[in-house]
Structures are given as C-alpha cells and as structure tokens.
Amino acid sequence: MAFFLGVDTGGTYTDAVILRDETEVIASAKALTTRHDLSFGISEAIRNVIDKSSIKPKDISLVSLSTTLATNALVEDQGGRVALIFVGFRDGDLAKHSINDALRGDPVLQVKGGHNHAGDETCRINLEEIKEWVLKRDGVSAFAVASQFATRNAAHELQIMELIRNLTDKPVTASHQLSSKLNGPRRALTAVLNARLIGIIDELIGRCGATLSNLKIDAPLMVVRGDGALISASEARNKPIETILSGPAASIVGAKWMTKLNLGFVSDIGGTTTDVALLKDGRPTLDAAGARVGNFRTMVEAVAMRTTGLGGDSQVHFLSEGLKGGVHLGPKRLVPISLLAHQEPHIHDILDEQLRTATPGEYDGKFIRLISSPDDHGLQSRDLKVLSRIERTAKSLRSVIQTRIEIKSIERLVSRGLIQVAGVTPSDASHVLKKMTTWDAAAAEKAILLFGRRRKGSGDLLGETAEGLSKMIINQLQRQTASFLLESAFHEEEKFDYPAEELANNIIMVQGLSTHKNIVKIDTGLNLPVVGLGASASSYYPAVGDLLKCDMILPQHSDVANAIGAVVGRITRRVQGSITAPSEGQFRAHFPDGPKDFLNEEQALDCLESFLVEKAIDQARDSGAADIVTKVSRNIKKAKAEAREMFVEAILTVEASGRPRISQ
C-alpha cells in the first residue's frame, strides 16, 4: 500500500490531498496561500490533510506539486527584472514579436552573430562587447540569451551562457533549452518569460521542500508541467516556464480521473483565472502552436488551454458609460476585502470612516500593503518613494496616493510582487449573499456599499443596497464565464471563418441562449457537458450551465482537482531533432553541439534517433521515472522534382514516459 501527497499552490488557496494507491482519495484540506511566505500556507495545508488522513508523514511515498503561480504571474505582469542578449536578429524583431512587451523596459543588448537554417555560422559574436554589457547590469535577477537558428546550432548561446556564468551568479536561460522548434523571436520571448519566472518558482519549490523536511516527509518531490506530465523539482527550478498552465493541466488530469469523461469541456475557476480545455478521447490535446497565457504566445508544450483573467478574486470595475452603468470583472486580481478584514480587522475602522464621508472618494474601499522586500528589483526613484509609504499592515490606498501619476508606480510595484492591493471582488459579493462564509462578510458589505456610491450616466447610484450590487457582480461573473466557454467552443469548431470572440457574442448567439421566439425562432447553447472545478464552482457554475443549456458536472473533490491530478500523472519527456538537406545527397542532422553530415538518409535518421532516444530516457530517468517506455515518430517531408522524389526535411520526436519512482 502506497500513499501519495498532492499539493496545489494557487493564487488564493493551497490545496492538499492524499491518495491511497492512486485509486482513492482518503483526505483533502485547504489553507490560504500566504504570498509573503509560501511555506506557511503549504505547511498548514499538508498538516491539515495528514491530520485528516490519520497516516504518518513517513508513510508518504511521493509528493507532487501543481501551481498556478507562473500562469498568474504572467497574467498579472509579475516577476523579476531580467536582461536579454539578442543575437543575430533583424532590427524590429523585438517590437514585432512582443518581446519588448515581455521585457517591460528591462535591458536588452542586440548584437551580431547567429547561424543560418543549415546551422552554419553567419557572423562571429563579440564576447568582449557582451562581457562589458553584462558587468553593468546591476539589479537584474536573471539573464536570457537567444541566438538566431540556435536550434540548428547552439554554439553562440552556449558561449554566452558560459561567459555570464563566469561573470555573475545569476541564472541564465538559453532559448534552445526551451524548444527545439524554429521561430527564433518566439524562442527569445519564451526565454525572457522563463528568466522572469525563475525567482517565483524557485521560492515556491524551496519553501515546499523545507516544509516537507520540517514535517519529516522523506519522499521524492515532483512538479506538474504544463502538459500534465511530471518533472523533478530541480528541472522546474531551471525551466519554470514549463510550469505555466501547470495547475490547469493538473486539473484536467484530475477531472478525467474523477469523472471518466471522454468528451467535454473542463472549466476551472480559481482566484485569478478561469481555465478552459477540451477533453477528447479522454485526453487533453496539446497546443501545437505553444501555450498562450495573457498576451504572450510561448513555445512551451502545454495542454490546449484557454485562460482568461476571471476568478473569484477578480477586480470589479465600474462602467460609467450609458444611462444604466454596470460592472466588468478582471483581468487583475485583488485581495478580497472580506479576506483582508479577516486577517487585519482594523480596516473596519477605515471603512466606517469612509462611509461617514458624504462625498465618495475615488479610492474608497481600496487598501494596500507590503508583502516583499524591494532588494535587487531595480526600481525607479518615483516607485521607491511610493514604496516607502507602504507598510506590512494594510493602509487605505487614499492615504498612500499623493498624485494620480503614482497609480502607475503602484501598478509596477504590484507587477514586481512587492505589494498587494485589496478591493471589491466576486468573493466579497459571495460573502454578502451568504454563498461563502469563510471570511469577514461585514467588511465585504461595507466595501460594496462604498463601491455602489458611484453614479451612473442617469445620475442614480450604481447600487442602493449591498445585496443588489452583489447580485449584479455575481451575475456578471456568470455571464463572462458563459461567454468565455462559448469562445472556447468556437475555437474548436472548424466550420466558421469568423473570430471566436465575435461568434460567442454575436446577437443571434446571445438571443438564442434565451430561446428567442418571434417570427424567427433561435435556440443556441453548448452541445457538450462541462466539468466545473474550483473551490467556488459549486456557487457559480450551476447558473452557467443554465445559461448555456448544457450539463454541468460538479464532481466530488472538484475543489482539489489540481492536487489530485498532480499525483495521478506520469513523467513524460519529449525531445525533438531535425535533419535537413543543404544540397542534393547530403543529409545534415542537427545536434546540440553542432550539425553532422551524412551521405545516406537512413544513416542520418538512425543516428539522430539513437541520440534522441538516449536523451529522452536520460531526461525521464533524471526526472525520477521508473519502468520507462519510449515512442518514436518520424515526420519526413519530401517533394517531387523532375519526376524524382527529393528529401526536404525530417523531424524526429521521441517520447519517454514512466510513473515516478516512490520511496519505500
């Protein structure tokens, strides 16, 4: 008999679950995610689940971790300050491929160098120029390196990596380590995002490891990758970008395990995001174009998941346009007022004072607090001045902001993970409506009353009562969820040539959801079942099912699906290599240390395949896999020319997989 511990650290809750022999959930527990020190929330959740299970810590054979932290960090523009060395690319590539957006003003050095599609060097790199630039990069948390056609020849990236490691103690990410596919600018973007995430994921894994040690749990620690497979903790530290969509991927694996569903949608609502994926033939499909999170399309292999900034802790925005006004949710996350008051009861006094003021203030009902030291974040002087007014004890936002321009400083400090802003969220509305009873409902009611004092275009108040405004917020959450599910469904349809967002919000589609009957009868809806997951799914999703006229499945343990998926997954390592034909009769296999030429096609294929099989098995074994099996696929492209068949290119993919080794 073996016991497996799954842990999921999300934006709001940390979940823990214990399975017996991968067949039965024997206990589950939750704790608040403590962003200022993740170990507290992890420790509390693990202690709670062990107490509920009545097993001893030494009985646990495997620990696996899934997390939404990397996904949330990209959605919320958080992460460390990075520096990019961009080798051999064209002027304009930084802007054209969203790399500047990912850098957010962080330093970049564009230099000559790189290789061509055949793996031949096009220009030597000037290491002295790079050395001089690197030594001046104070305040950088990590470096990213991207060279043109590095997947065909990684020599320049390897040289620069070695140089940086000799000059600094900062982590370095090279683009060829993250993807073997072509598209250098997108690999560069992926490398930048990976470098930005290193500190966040390193802290998470470090805290988790320390907690396990303190609790006397001696078992291998795994982390869920974005495709639902497992990797070792050390791999996740080096390649944190692979953990984007980790939590959602684990939830899909968990949903399949709980429901045995073969065809349908999985919708997982968390505090920050809602993630939707299609289960087909009982398996989630991989996104061939690479995982997309927020505004960024990466080259990370992950489940074909659509993510939107909509969750229980989404910011509620006032819509002043038109006579009726209204609210909109997301994409940024706030600390719910009900949670803040639960942790810091003194904010009741501030809320009461704001309610007594006859004239509503722009920042009423919003609070701010410090959660991390500003060391080594490369902040601007204006940001440091604002930061100096913020304390670890929550203060009203109004008491911190002196000029409107400082709102930009607040946004930058939030994006660096240094501070938190609290305000009205759907979680607060749920407390007012008694759908949730976990935190401080009285504080939520006061904050929502303050929010409702805004004036619509008609001159009337947005909300006369906290209950009425709370219903408006929850209804909007359900409408946005339904709309996003429809968008996701239209993305899977093949018969429409219009953008999915336009189709989901088309007047015919919207009217059909309410079964329009006049001269024309319109009846629309979702034709597949939806598995609703997340701690708040049981509160919000039944109405979403009614809106879409579909079966809404809310399985037992749906609130800890991520943690379940973490421990029932497999270790899978997928490696890829290519063979090109620089000239007729010449077959060039591309290896990490440079290309190798062959005069025979089959010899080139066999040599590359042997290398890839060995590499995949080694990676799977290093990740902790046992009983490894491999699968090889060859995609050979040929073209006809003058009645002859000409070799163009071959892509070889090797997959090695196995269940994690467990402690005895």
In short:
The protein has 664 residues and is of the alpha/beta class. Helix content is 36%, strand content 26%.
Structure description:
It contains 22 helices and 31 strands. The chain is of the alpha/beta class and 664 residues long. The strands form eight sheets. A six-stranded mixed beta sheet has the order 3-2-1-4-9-10, sandwiched between helices. Strands 11, 12, 13, 16, 25 and 26 form a six-stranded mixed beta sheet that branches. A five-stranded antiparallel beta sheet has the order 29-28-27-31-30, covered by helices on one side. Helix 11 (347-356) packs parallel to helix 16, helix 12 crosses helix 14 and helix 15 (426-432) packs across helix 16 (441-451). The termini are close together.
Write a concise keyword list for the protein shown above.
664 residues; alpha/beta; Nucleotidyltransferase, domain 5; six-stranded mixed beta sheet; 22 helices
- According to CATH, the homologous superfamily of the domain at 3-75 and 201-304 and 560-567 is ATPase, nucleotide binding domain
CATH overall fold name of the domain at 3-75 and 201-304 and 560-567 = Nucleotidyltransferase, domain 5
SS content category: alpha/beta
Number of strands: 31
> Can you identify the CATH class of the domain at 3-75 and 201-304 and 560-567?
Alpha Beta
